[in-house]
């Protein structure tokens, strides 16, 4: 059996990589329980060779919730890396639901009556452990299927470990037809151990305090600095994230654990509008935005979208790390929109403050 998470955590502390955090240490106990249960070899069937072995008792999973930057994703990733079994998977909840919705779509196109069953069966094939990062339910189409989806996954013996910013009872809070969602909350509370990661420290903010968050000019040094920040946040992991907004798809080129990375042109040269930028601001806690150019009436559409993007990030208290051709006040010097840009420049300044984003709601 593998080394305990507690032991490996302590090694990281010894090495000076992580700070000892009592709330995180408390959360290691249930994770170690799950790891041990999953790694334990399946008992040999009793009562003769020909008796069919009963399906193994499913291992009770975990719902780890708490404020942002407390180390939920870090602990889950650490757990996922460490568990010594085949058939484990870690995926962002959003990407997972997109996969399910795409599967449903395909199954229905083939004429399946009960599309969820084959989709869940396919999903659970060979799967023993599913780690879902950032469970969050805002979409009614997701809200209406998660209950049965999770029932099918539990019935297939899949152990679910998930992180969330919210306590289960507050999932899909104020959502449409919420009464139909309540059985899912009961299911989660019943089938998963619910643990509050109540650390007082927001490590993500701590990492940025005192760090540069606005680089100008957008030269090689800026690129290297931003690459280093990205690596620090994500350890190099990252994949495109597609957000569904009013039936459209908005792609973030790189995303991992609440941190997105894009270039100005990825977000401001496409015909995106306020709803798209709000969806981005909701999905992301830190946006690394590279190569903001000088703006003018020449690139008025891009500039206008940039203003909308900054407003959305500002409203959402998203941490922005940017490289730009000039300081905020010098980005937009002539042409229609100069006046409006003053507010944007001032917001860009304010967002550079060390405390920016601390008050972001979960
Ligand atoms: N005990 C710790 N010591 C040092 N860094 C930590 C610790 N816990 C978390 N971090 C770092 O803080 C950042 C935020 O943690 P994360 O797991 O992403 O938070 P959450 O998922 O709760 O929002 C990550 O970069 C993570 O590596
Ligand atoms: Mg997280």
Automatic annotation (TrEMBL):
Can you quote a single GO CC term?
cytoplasm
Which Pfam family, an example, fits this chain? Answer: AFG1_ATPase
Which keywords label this protein?
A: ATP-binding, Cell cycle, Cell division, Nucleotide-binding
GO-annotated molecular function? ATP binding; ATP hydrolysis activity
What's an example Gene Ontology biological process for this entry?
Answer: cell division
What domain of life?
Answer: Bacteria
Spell out the Gene3D superfamilies in the cross-references. P-loop containing nucleotide triphosphate hydrolases
Q: What is this protein called?
A: Cell division protein ZapE
Q: Which organism is it from?
A: Rhodovulum marinum
